[in-house]
Amino acid sequence: MRIASYNINGINSRFAVLERWLKEFQPDIVGLQELKCTDDAFPAAAIEALGYSAIWHGQRAWNGVALLSKVGRPVETRRALPADPNLEQSRYIEAAICGILVGNMYAPNGNPQPGPKFDYKLAWLDALKAYAQDLIDGEVPAMLIGDYNIIPTDEDVYKPERWKKDALFAPAAREKFRELVEQGWTDALRKTHPDERIYTFWHYWRNSFERDAGIRIDHALLSPPLAKKLKKAGVDRTPRGWEKTSDHGPMWVELKL
DNA sequence: ATGTCTGGCCCGGCCAGA
Hints:
Layout: E1 2-7, H1 15-25, E2 29-33, H2 44-49, E3 53-57, E4 65-69, E5 75-78, E6 92-97, E7 100-106, H3 116-137, E8 142-147, H4 171-182, E9 186-187, H5 188-192, E10 201-202, E11 214-215, E12 218-222, H6 224-227, E13 230-235, E14 251-255
Parallel strand pairs: 1-2, 7-8
Antiparallel strand pairs: 1-14, 2-4, 3-4, 5-6, 6-7, 8-12, 9-12, 10-11, 13-14
The chain binds one DNA strand of 18 nucleotides through residues 9-10, 13, 34, 36-37, 60-62, 109, 111, 149, 203-206, 208, 244, 247.
């Protein structure tokens, strides 16, 4: 079973890329972020035609998250964090699929910092942490996937000094991620690539992808019952090289269920 | 410091957000 997370950066403007990636890589379950469309504008029929059932939580122009599955219809369990500090923003959707609770998020970017956007980022991460602790306490076979907008360590960025002033690399944000993982979650990509630089995002400008000047901000955290079933994890770099593509590459986790 | 791309506004380039 292959579960992927992909910040598509506008589902309608990137639909050709999404379609090609789904066809070529055949993920079983996909969490999408940054749909940048209203619920009405979500390309439901086209996704259904590709063999995926979907649930989505859109928003005009910004944010937006969806879950796709070709291994059974997602049974929606949440469309916001329990203590979400701003319900206007579509940043979380969750479903039970094949006995797994899949939480898919688009965490706040937080720039510029310091400032209200950074405060919101930290408040949102606090709400995530509180809910994540409940999932750990309940021994739920859960995974929290998506764009966390956090570079966890110096090993997750091509040139740490270049990101020193960015909210994605701010000590307070990195601390939240560390505390979250320490609840007992397994960072699937880092677990399977302990000594490797592995990125999920490359800026559009300055030939970042060609130079591999990337950062790792898309993550999959597995609760202990699921971590036991982790086989492999990786990043599909191929779609990042396609025309009119997202600035992220899809990351994936393979579980033996 | 720079740099790129999209959606929104409403029809032509700007601006915000990332």
